Amino acid sequence: MSEYRSTIRRVLPVPIQGIYLPTEKREELQEQYDLLSNCSSLIDRLTFEYIASQFYRGITESFISEQATRLTIMDAATTHSDEMINSLRITYQKKRQERITQELNEVTSAFQVLGKA
Q: Is residue 27 one of the residues assigned to a domain?
């Protein structure tokens, strides 16, 4: 079975202190942080991230649901085939026992007929 586990990651503020990066990379990170520091760009970014995460969650749940349904169907098919095998085995054993009983009856009847003659 599959399982979906959500994780929480810190997005803002970007922890630039204590990171040993080249200065151009550090400036790029600072630029991104400054870009997300005003309210409207932050709301736009968070809205996009929320929609993307909900879309991902929907796809993941759909996949897990499909796999669970397939597993349930295969389990039901296996159970049904086991029941069918047991039913056929019992029917076969009954028919076999009937033939054996019939043959014994024929042998004992023949013995009685021959014994009286």
A: yes
The domain of 79 spans 23-86
What is the count of structural domains for the chain? 1
Instruction: Give the CA distances from residue 28 to residues 13, 39, 74, 98, in Å, rounded to whole numbers and listed in that order.
Output: 14, 20, 53, 88
Tens-of-pLDDT digits for all 117 residues of the chain?
677 777 776 666 655 555 666 777 767 766 666 655 666 777 777 888 899 999 999 999 999 999 999 999 999 999 999 999 999 999 999 999 999 999 999 999 988 888 875
pTM score? 0.47
Quick check: is 58 in a domain?
A: yes
